[in-house]
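Hey,
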Amino acid sequence: MKVLVQRSLNSSVSVDGKIIGSIDKGMVLLVGFTEGDTIDNIKYLVNKIVNLRIFDDEFGVMNKSILEVGGDILSISQFTLYADTKKGNRPSYIHALNGEQATVLYDQFNEELRQFVKVETGKFGAEMKVNILNDGPITILLER
């Protein structure tokens, strides 16, 4: 499982020209799954995400978590995190989990996150347009 975390001032996702999810201050998560991912992987990364100290304290030091700043999360399914370009310029996605299984894990991931923070999502498998105002820029790749 891979999660690309971006600190965001505001972000949104649209499908067919209609915004289906948006947040103000918080995090955008691009989430990908691979064979062998489990609910334990999900719980581990959710714990990492909600406790990740990437928000500024009163001294401008990244010392606060999303829980402490009251931010929201925009979660986007992103199988392309498992792109493999070892054999040339056209990426292979053979290591990405198939859609049916990945949908189940993605839903579980978002439900786990919702125990801690407000979560907006894209639409799994849809052609999405994601607008991210990355703050910092802060971008961190988490894997499990």
